[in-house]
Design goal:
The structure holds 2 protein chains of 2 kinds.
Chain A lengths: L9 H13 L11 H4 L2 E8 L2 E6 L8 H15 L4 E6 L12 H9 L2 E2 L49 E5 L7 E6 L5 E5 L3
Parallel strand pairs in A: 2-3, 4-7
Antiparallel strand pairs in A: 1-2, 5-6, 6-7
Helix pairs in contact in A: 1-3
Chain B lengths: L12 H15 L8 H23 L2 H4 L2 H6 L10 H4 L5 H22 L4 H25 L3 H14 L17 H19 L24 H16 L6
The chains are: A alpha/beta, B mainly alpha.
């Protein structure tokens, strides 16, 4: 963590400050940074010494957003900003597609199955495969298009695709609880939105 | 299609009140849910709803005051939530049927509002999970044991009279209400059909039954709920953690 004031000028300085804000760890999943999570939108300086930060929540009710905002403010003040305003923006809504590759890798390493690409992601469409295991009858509700077709959630411990959903909601709103049928370990899955 | 007009902040008050009140009712399951996973699920759904309410209340600061003032210092008649969400949580089947009725309403409602209302655009993705959760449980309970089936049917029959109000147009919200109601009825009939439940035939609204929550008229349990919810803030104004 940089503690000395950032002295460079102009754009370079703003970039350094944005990187600094982005390097703040997620309060609930400290293995990944806010930049990797994709929740930091912009850092600008409308007036000299006054930084304006736009932050977006993962889930509408995510209580971690307040800790994120105060962590960003602390880091930027320590870097020399006189005034920091962190604004919460909702639009466009955050999606799990905003988590970087590096963020996904770190989540998996930490034992959290990363989200699968949603139907909204650019690029080729996923070929729907039948689920390896389901815990209830197929849903016919016109679900949000974000919920991807059956693309197996792999166990972050052993890599098996044979996993079962235990609960749609886990320790935080953004995760579901699953169990690996091969190695028997329960694990969190960062569910797609 | 003409672009949807952005609703004024005040027009979103009924939506915010729906979310806050249902969030509180779901919160009443803390420590009482049948299994730990359900305890977490209901708390997470409650948290999503609380987030919706807070976000909308924050937009009403000029009109109504701070989030805390809006939630804790208004009286019963000033709340514009529908009567469905204020009903006591009942047993687990009761809560699940209410969740099904409400999420099958909220998800398409937010889908319609999404282009113009950032909160709806954001929350609609979460409400899809709420709806899926309610649907899976309705199937499991309706198509479960004799006891679970009976309780779920009883809940559906009891809550049915509060469902007509959901489609009363809210002034200032650009919503195709009839289309919403058709979509809701089809969705409920589909889930009930697969769950082996009977769609009630009783009136969905009536002179004395339900239908005036949006005008600030509420059922008797709501006052008691508010008394509990607002007690701390009113007794210790400005209290913080």
């Amino acid at each position: 963590m940089v503690t000395a004031p950032v002295r460079a000028d102009g754009e370079e300085r703003l970039e350094t400050l944005a990187r600094l804000a982005g390097s703040v760890p997620d309060p609930e999943l400290p293995v990944i940074t806010l930049e990797e999570l994709g929740v930091l939108r912009t850092v600008s300086e409308p007036e000299p010494g006054h930084l304006d930060v736009q932050l977006t929540p993962t889930y509408t009710g995510c209580p971690a957003i307040e800790a994120m905002a105060s962590d960003i403010e602390r880091v930027l003040r320590r870097a020399g900003a006189e005034q920091v305003t962190v604004r919460i923006v909702l639009s466009p809504p955050w999606s799990t597609d905003d988590i970087s590759e590096e963020g996904r890798r770190k989540l998996a390493e930490h034992g959290v199955a990363p989200p699968r690409p949603t139907a909204r992601a650019d690029g080729p469409l996923l070929v729907p495969l039948s689920p390896t295991r389901r815990t209830g009858p197929a849903s016919s509700a016109p679900s949000d298009p974000a919920i991807p077709p059956a693309d197996p959630v792999r166990c972050p411990h052993c890599g098996s695709a044979d996993t079962a959903l235990l609960s749609r909601f886990s320790s935080t709103a953004c995760k579901a609880l699953r169990r690996c049928e091969l190695c028997g370990e329960p694990f969190d899955h960062f569910k797609e939105v | 299609m003409t672009p949807t007009a952005s609703p004024t902040a005040l027009a979103t008050l009924p939506l915010a009140d729906d979310a806050l009140v249902l969030s509180h009712r779901l919160g009443e399951w803390a420590g009482h849910a049948p299994v730990l996973e359900e305890e977490l699920a209901l708390a997470n759904i409650a948290l999503d709803l609380l987030g919706q309410a807070r976000s909308l209340y924050a937009g009403l600061r000029e009109e109504l005051g701070t989030e805390d003032e809006i939630a804790y210092l208004r009286d019963e008649r000033e709340f514009l939530n529908c009567q469905l969400v204020e009903q006591p949580r009942g047993d687990f089947a009761h809560t699940i049927v209410r969740q099904l009725f409400f999420s099958t309403y909220q998800q398409p409602l937010y889908t319609q509002l999404a282009p113009a209302l950032p909160l709806a655009e954001k929350a609609v993705r979460e409400t899809a999970y709420h709806r899926d959760h309610a649907e899976q449980w309705t199937l499991r309970l309706g198509d479960g044991t004799v006891e679970s089936h009976a309780r779920t049917q009883r809940a559906a029959d009891a809550l049915w009279r509060f469902t007509g109000e959901l489609f009363q147009p809210v002034e200032g919200l650009d919503v195709r209400w009839e289309e919403l109601e058709e979509e809701w009825s089809a969705g409920i009939a589909d889930v009930f059909g697969r769950a082996g439940l009977t769609v009630p035939e009783s009136p969905r609204t009536g002179a004395w039954t339900a239908g005036a929550g949006r005008q600030g008229l509420h059922t008797e349990p709501f006052g008691r709920m508010l008394a509990e919810m607002q007690y701390l803030h009113r007794s210790h104004p400005g209290a913080t953690w």
